[in-house]
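Lab meeting, item 3. Inverse folding demo.
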């Protein structure tokens, strides 16, 4: 019998659909403020998302459009300023309650909290963005629920590298075979699998066509008592939604 000791959550796309109407919109606002004519469309942002990390994404975009700014001595400073502005706009969007948690997230976090299961965050996004999201959406104080928030530049290599997951495992002294990771993207899955984590994927509009063949389970969303989840791969939850007992069964199957 495998024990579920910890659940490790990705943030963007997993806890909430933050990319299309959150980060993307905030990036465009920051570009406008800086007097740039860059405007990332919903479709274009799908490709840009293959690069994780907002600063890295802007750098990649500059390369794609052969921006003369790439040659500028102030490039690093400029990206940092754009990123800071973007994150401020992002926080404003969250404070206006324009983004909510995905189905089942609030319920699962509450259940894990009540059962004393360790919870951690392993994300590419900046710490302040995690704070903005969870402060404005979760019905608990996230600082009391999560044992560790591992975010952004805390590690040298972002997803798809496994560094951020390794960081969580090392700092919380976890056994990999007692943890389940929740992810939404191919980059996230590569990261969690590179350290050997049992991984449940929740699809979203930007990631539904990614290759998730290495995942232990794939669902459209975690589901709620009145909203069954659709299982595309993996075990069928007894309750028709993903809860702790479902994660325990998934872990047991993964460790068999
Ligand atoms: C998603 C990302 C992030 C966000 C923007 O991270 O790739 O870069 O798009 O956040 P995850 P920053 O799915 O791991 O949560 O601008 O703060 O990097
Ligand atoms: Mg994600």
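The presenter then showed the designed sequence:
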């Amino acid at each position: 019998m495998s024990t579920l000791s910890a659940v490790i959550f990705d943030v963007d796309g997993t806890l909430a659909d933050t990319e299309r109407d959150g980060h993307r919109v905030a990036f465009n606002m920051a570009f406008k403020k800086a007097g740039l004519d860059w405007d990332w469309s919903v479709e274009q942002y799908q490709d840009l998302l293959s690069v994780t990390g907002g600063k890295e994404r802007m750098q990649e975009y500059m390369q794609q459009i052969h921006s003369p700014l790439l040659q500028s001595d102030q490039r690093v400073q400029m990206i940092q300023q754009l990123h800071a502005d973007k994150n401020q706009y992002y926080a404003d969007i969250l404070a206006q309650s324009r983004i909510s948690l995905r189905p089942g997230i609030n319920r699962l976090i509450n259940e894990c909290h009540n059962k004393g299961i360790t919870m951690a965050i392993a994300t590419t996004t900046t710490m302040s963005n995690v704070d903005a999201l969870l402060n404005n959406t979760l019905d608990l104080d996230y600082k009391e629920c999560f044992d560790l928030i591992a975010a952004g530049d805390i590690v040298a290599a972002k997803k798809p590298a496994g560094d951020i997951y390794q960081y969580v495992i090392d700092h919380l002294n976890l056994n990999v075979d007692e943890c389940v990771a929740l992810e939404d993207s191919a980059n996230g899955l590569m990261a969690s699998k590179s350290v050997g984590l049992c991984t449940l994927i929740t699809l979203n509009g930007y990631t539904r066509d990614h290759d998730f063949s290495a995942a232990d389970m794939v669902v459209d969303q975690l589901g709620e008592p009145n909203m069954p989840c659709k299982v595309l791969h993996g075990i069928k939850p007894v309750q028709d939604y993903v809860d702790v007992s479902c994660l325990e069964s998934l872990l047991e199957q993964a460790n068999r």
